[in-house]
Amino acid sequence: MSSSVTMPEPASFGRRLKRFMADRPLIPLIILLIILVAILQVLRPGIVNERWIANTAKFAIPLAILAGCQTMTMLTGGIDLSVGTVATMSAFIMATQIVNQNPTVAFILAMLPAVLIGLVNGIGVGVFRVHPLIMTLGTSLIGTGFLQVYQRTVIASGASIPDFLNWLGTGLTYGFPNALFLFVPVAALIVFTLNRTGFGRLLYAVGDNERAARLSGVRYWQVITALYVISGLLAGITGLLYIGLIKAPSLSLAEPLVLPSVAAAVIGGTSIFGGRGGYMGTIVGALILTVLTTLLTILQMPEGGRRILFGFIVLFVTAAYLRIIEDR
Amino acid sequence: MTTNPLPQNPLLDATGVAKNYGAVAALRNASLSVLPGEVHALMGANGAGKSTLVKILTGAIRADAGRILIRGEARDVRSPAAARRAGLLPVYQEPALIPDLDVLSNLRLTGTPVEPFRAWVRELGIPNLDIRETARDIPLAVLRVLDLARALAVEPDVLLLDEMTAALPANLAEKVLEVVRRQGNSGRSVIFISHRFVEISALCDRATVLRDGATVGVVDIEPGVEEKIVEMMLGARIEKTSVAAARTASEAPTVKDSHPRLSVRNLQLGTKLHDVSFDLANGEVAGVVALEGQGQDELFAALAGSIRPAGGTIAVDGAQVRFSHPSDAIRAGIAYVPGDRTEALAMQRSVRENIALPFSAAFRKWGPIKMRRERWVVSSAVARLQIDTRAQGEVRRLSGGNQQKVTIARWIAADARTILCFDPTRGIDVGTKQEIYKLLRELAGLGKSALFYTSELEEVQRVCDRVIVIFGGRVVDTFPVELADEPALMRAAYGLPRGARQDVGILADVRPDAEAAP
C-alpha cells in the first residue's frame, strides 16, 4: 500500500472533538463525574472532603464489582440478574454460619451457592441456550426461595458480622477505605483478563459474532459456563464485602444493587448487545451513579421525585454518551 | 409445444432494466418478454442477474432504470402486493409459508381461496393434506408444492417459478412439470428458472439468456439448443489466461505421499448431498465448481465440522475422522473461510484480535496472551497478505477486500495445512483477487492444500490443479485443469456430459412421462 496518507478533510471543531472522544471514551465519562462533583460542591460548599470521598468509594465499590459481573456478561450479549440474590445469599450464610463455625468453613459454605448458581446459569445459557435474562432471573428467584427456607433453620442461632468483614467494609487505613484492598486487585484482574488473556478475547469475540468464534474453533458453552461461574464468584465476594458495610443481614440485602449495576455498565459504555465495552468505563459509571445518588439525596426531594429524576438522568446520560462515542 | 407463430402482444414486457448496488451493477440492461400461453425459461450463470431481475419483476426491490409493461400498460411494481395485483406471482426457492401458522391461516394471510387451493394440491399429487397442520411440521418437498398450489389458486397471469423442482422427489417433480405445462395451454404464462436442461427442454417454449446483467439473447427451445445457450451464457470470453503460469509453483514439491491429505468417500447429507467422493493431495488446489445450491455449501460445512454428515467417511492423512465441532477440524489442520465475510469476522474488534482469534480458542489457551509473540505472528500474516491496516482498530471500517484478507490471514497465522475457501473472491476488487490467487498458489507450493469453490469459472484455470464439478449433490465430473475451460465447466455444471458437443442425447433422453405428455 502506498505510504502517503491522504490529508483528512478539514473537520469542524465539533467533529474533531467528537472524534477525540470516540477514540477515548473514558474522557467524557470522567468529565461528567467531575461536573457532578462540582455541582455537589456548589450546592453544599465544603461537602467534598476527604471523608466524603472515602465514603463515596465505600459505597461505589460493591456496586462496581457487581457492575463488573454485568460488564463481562454483557460483552457476550448476556446479563446476570442473579448477582443480587447471590450476593445476598453469601452475605446471609456468612453472617449466620460464623456463629457456630470456624471462619474458613463459613466462608466456603457462603461461597458454595454463589458458584452453584453461576454454574447453573452458565449451563443454562451456554448449553441449553436459555436467554440469559430469563435464566438468571429464574435462578435468582430459586435462590431467594432457598434462602427463605434456610433462614428458618438458623433463626435460633442468630447472626453476627465477622470482625474481618467489618474491617473490610467500613474500616479506613490512612484515610483510605479498606475495601480498596479487595477492589484494586479484583479490578486489576478483571481489566487484565479482558485485555490480555485468551478468555477475555473470547468474551468479546463470542459477543460480537458467535458464528465467527465458532468457526475459529471456540466452544461457546465452555466460555459461557466459565463466565457465569466467575460472575457468581464475584457476586458472592461482593456480598461478603457488602455485609461488612451494611451490617444488617436481610433477605434482600443486595437486591437494590442489581439494576444500578446494569446501569453502571451501560453508562460506562459497554454495549448490551455484546462485543464492545470495558471495565474502566464501568468503574467510572459506578462512581457517577453513587455521586448522583448523593446529589439527589441532599436536594431533599421526596423519595418519589428523587427516583424519577434518577431514572431520567440515567437515560439521558446513556443516550448522550452513546451518541458521543459511536462514530458512524 | 404451443409456440405461436403469430405476433402476439406480450403479457409481460420488461426492457432496459438496470439496478446498481453502490458501484456494483447487478443488472445493466436486462429485458424479458413473455407471450401469453408461453412457458419461458430464464437462464444465466451464477451472478448473471437472474435473481435481481426476478426480484424487480415481483416488486421485492426497485429498479434504477427500465420499463415494465404488463398487458401493454406501464406498471410500476413498487411492492410484492402491487406485483400480485398486476397478476404476477412468484414461487421462490425458499418455502414462503409462515412456519408457526397452520396451512389454513397461511392461506387467509394472502387471501387465497381455499377450495381451488385444495384442488391444486390434489392435482399436484398430494391427496390427503390436512390444512390444519402447522407449516413447520410439513416436509420441505410438500411445502414447496403447497407454495405452488397457493400461487396457482389465485390464477395469476404470469407465474414465476424459481428452481421449483430442486427439492422435490421424482414423482412430485413430474406432477409439477405437468401442471406447469398445462398452465401454458390455458393461456397463462410461466417464467421458469431452472438449472436443469432436461426440464427446460421438456417444458419451455423459449428461453431468455442473461449474462453480466444484460439480456444476451432469446432462443426457441429445440433439440441441440443447449450448446447455444451455454455459449450465450459464457459470451465470447477471449483472453485465455495461461494455465502453465498458474501451476508452475506446484510442480516442484509434489512429494509422493502414501495418503491423500483429505479423502472424502460417499458423503451424504439430507436432500443436499447424495454421494460425494474425492481426494485432495498435499500441495494441491482443487477447485469446486457448481451452480448455486447443488450441495457445495453443505460439503464445505461438513468438511469444516459445522454440520455432521449423515453418511460416508472423511479421512485426513489416511486416518478416518468424525468432526463434531469446527474445533475438531481445526485441530486436524483444516480451516474454513466462508464466502460471507460477516460470518467469519468480529466486526467491532481489531484486525489483530480477529487474526489471533483461533489462538485463544482452546481451553488451555485461555490464560495470559504472550503479546509480543502474538504481535509478531499477526504482523507477519498482515504483511504476507498486504492488508491495509490504516483502519485496523475495527475490522468493519476496512474495505471488503481487506476484510476478506483478514479472514484468510487468520489461518495463515494459525498455519493451517488445508484451507477450505468458499468463493473467497466474491464482491472484491480485481487487485485483491489477484493477490488471493497468488497466495493460494504459494501455499500449494509449500505443500499445503486448498479446496476452492468459486462461482467465477475463469478463476479455475488461474488457481486450481484440478476441478471437481458437483451437480445435484453428486460429483458429476473431475477435470484436470488443462481441460477446464469455461465452456467445458459450464456444461459440466449443468450436468451435461463431457465432450458431447453435438449431443442430441440429452434432449432425446427426457423422462418417458415428459415425452408422453402432450
Write up this protein.
The complex is a heterodimer of chains A (328) and B (518). Chain A is mainly alpha-helical and 328 residues long. Chain A is built from 14 helices and 2 strands. Chain A has helices at residues 13-23, 26-43, 50-75, 83-97, 103-126, 132-154, 163-170, 179-196, 198-208, 210-215, 220-246, 258-267, 279-298, 303-325; strands spanning 172-173, 176-177. In chain A, strands 1-2 form a two-stranded antiparallel sheet. The radius of gyration of chain A is 21 Å and the shape is globular. Chain B folds into 2 domains: 12-238 and 512-516, Rossmann fold, CATH 3.40.50; 243-493, Rossmann fold (3-Layer(aba) Sandwich). By secondary structure, chain B is of the alpha/beta class. The relative contact order of chain B is 0.11. Chain B has 20 helices and 20 strands. Chain B has helices spanning 50-57, 80-85, 103-109, 114-123, 140-153, 170-185, 197-203, 225-234, 243-251, 296-303, 326-331, 341-344, 351-360, 371-385, 400-413, 430-445, 458-463, 486-493, 505-508, 512-516, and strands at residues 12-21, 24-34, 39-44, 65-70, 73-74, 88-91, 158-162, 189-193, 206-211, 214-220, 262-269, 273-280, 285-289, 311-316, 319-321, 334-337, 418-422, 449-453, 466-471, 474-480. In chain B, strands 6-7-8-3-9-10 form a 6-stranded mixed beta sheet, with helices on both faces. A 6-stranded mixed beta sheet of chain B has the order 16-17-18-13-19-20, with helices on both faces. In chain B, strands 2-1-4-5 form a 4-stranded antiparallel beta sheet, with helices on one face. In chain B, a hairpin with a 3-residue loop joins strand 11 and strand 12 (273-280). The longest helix of chain B is centred in the middle third of the chain and has 16 residues, at 170-185. The interface between A and B is medium-sized, with 26 and 36 residues.
Count of discrete alpha- or pi-helical segments spanning 4 or more residues of chain B: 20
Q: What is the name of the CATH topology of the largest domain in chain B?
A: Rossmann fold
Strand content of chain B: 15-25%
Which term fits the overall shape of chain A? globular
Structural class of chain A: mainly alpha
Bin the strand percentage of chain A. under 5%
Largest sheet of chain A: 2 strands, antiparallel
* Contiguous uncertain segments of 5+ residues of chain A: 1-9
- Note the quaternary state here: heterodimer
